[in-house]
Amino acid sequence: MLSVRDAEATILNLVQGLDKQKDIEFVDLLTAHNRILATSVNSYLDFPHWDNSEMDGFAVRYADVLKATAEKPTVLEVVEEIPAGYKPQITVKPGQAARIFTGAVMPDGADTVVMQEKTHRQENRVFIFAAPQPQEFVRRKGDFYKAGSELLPAGIRLSATEIAVLAAAGHDQISVFRRPRVVIFSSGNELVMPGEALQAGQIVDSNQFALATLVREVGAEVLVLGIVKDDPTALKEIIEYAIANSDIVISSGGVSVGDYDYIEKILQSLGAKIHFQSVQMRPGKPLTFATFPNTLYFGLPGNPVSALVTCWRFVQPTIKKLAGLAQGWQGQFLKVRSHSELQSNGKMETYIWGKLHLVNGVYEFYQAGGNNSSGNLINLAQTNALAVLPVGKTLVYPREEVLVLQVR
Length: 408
Ligand SMILES: Nc1nc2c(c(=O)[nH]1)N[C@H]1C(S)=C(S)[C@@H](COP(=O)(O)OP(=O)(O)OC[C@H]3O[C@@H](n4cnc5c(N)ncnc54)[C@H](O)[C@@H]3O)O[C@H]1N2
Ligand code: MOO
Ligand SMILES: [Mg+2]
Known about the structure:
Layout: H1 4-14, E1 24-28, E2 41-42, E3 52-53, E4 57-60, H2 62-65, E5 74-82, E6 96-100, E7 112-115, E8 119-122, E9 125-128, E10 138-139, E11 150-152, H3 160-168, E12 173-177, E13 181-187, E14 191-192, E15 203-204, H4 207-217, E16 221-228, H5 232-244, E17 248-252, H6 263-269, E18 273-276, E19 281-282, E20 288-292, E21 295-300, H7 304-322, E22 333-338, E23 342-343, E24 349-359, E25 362-367, E26 385-389, E27 395-396, E28 401-406
Parallel strand pairs: 5-6, 13-16, 13-17, 14-15, 17-21, 19-24, 22-25
Antiparallel strand pairs: 1-12, 2-11, 3-10, 4-6, 4-7, 5-9, 8-9, 18-20, 20-21, 22-28, 23-27, 24-25, 24-26, 26-28
The chain binds ligand LQZAQKY5, molybdate ion (MOO) and magnesium ion.
């Protein structure tokens, strides 16, 4: 059976990122959060834009004040006052100083700032009580960034820090990748919508809601088509529509070996290339992955835990890569101590759902209490991590280290 690692490589090697020319849109900064930058950005401005003061104090010539002490202060003539946003008019000459404030432009002639606390002002004179370091408290033009070089590379996700940089560089509109388009549907004769009265044998379709949430979480645009009966004609119709209108299709259910599990046959009849139909993992073994010329197809297993585990493990990284992220699309695995004893049959790579808790500043993994059937979604609530037991590992002792996939 295909290992999880090989399944992941098969999928991610087939994922083409969105096109840097065709798949972009312009957004303004206040709506740019979590979008992915499509083009690298630079600025025609140096940062800082000019030499400026880091303190409220006095701009001086270092050579004038290098011998200043509390006992023998240096006395300078104050020739100008320079608040922030003002262009200095006077060159500071030997024996002179300018009153200056934080962020204000350094005047010509001065090279050093003495902070206010080390001085005493008396009308147009200032007493300097301590020798500063040469060029102390001066932020030099271009020290943070030189105009024309790369400010931000393409393919990064934008959050507060990058948005601040873009704003400071004067970009009010930026080019980002469009959101990947994902179509989701559920298959099963037994499924009904929440709020509908249940007839014998029916259950509510929870997968469409969970999957739509996970897909949006990684920045995709979702179209949910709802529930389709286990009926080949209906399924064929919806899959044809889905592949024509998306980058990725996600269905849940109908991928195992039962008489009503039609997904694979229909994919075949529509000319899909089926890359695999099962993976050596639990839950999630009957995962089906197929491609059409412009669309990736994930046939997730119907059991609620299996659908979510395979979405976390394979679909979310796929969406992130397709969305144009240049790196970091893979899942984040942490090595932590397990509080709980964890068990597997050793035959499958086993994903155990639970919670990472911070205990004295260190993460520990707690398996979810209750029934750990892949049909039980009740104890999946509040899951923020999956412990991963590799093939061959049957037991993790309490306090033993284990790899966990962070899912929230
Ligand atoms: N003989 C075998 N039977 C099964 C195998 C196997 O290897 N041999 N694998 C089992 C595993 S593992 C899984 S996982 C399931 C996968 O089943 P399907 O993908 O075919 O899904 P369904 O048969 O349609 O449903 C399975 C289960 O999940 C419930 N379900 C389905 N859709 C939803 C939904 N949208 N929301 C909530 N719950 C859903 C459905 O009612 C069933 O209980 O196959 C095993 N069988
Ligand atoms: O994977 Mo099924 O995914 O074990 O219930
Ligand atoms: Mg089935």
